[in-house]
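Progress note, sequence design subtask.
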C-alpha cells in the first residue's frame, strides 16, 4: 500500500487525493502498517548532526 501511495494511485487527474484514500484513512487497521513502515524508515535514516 505504501508504494501505491508513493506511485500516485490515490490521486485523481487533477492530482487531488481521491475518496478511496480518505476511506482508507478512516480504517485505522489499514493505515497502521504503512505508518509503522514510514516511522521505522525515518528512525533508520536519522542522522544526528
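Output:
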Amino acid at each position: 500500500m505504501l508504494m501505491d501511495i508513493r506511485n500516485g494511485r490515490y490521486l485523481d487527474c487533477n492530482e487531488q487525493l481521491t475518496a478511496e484514500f480518505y476511506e482508507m484513512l478512516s480504517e485505522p487497521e489499514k493505515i497502521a502498517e504503512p505508518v509503522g513502515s514510514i516511522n521505522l524508515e525515518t528512525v533508520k535514516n536519522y542522522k544526528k548532526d
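The helical segments are 2-6, 19-25, 28-45. Work on this subtask will continue into the next period as scheduled.
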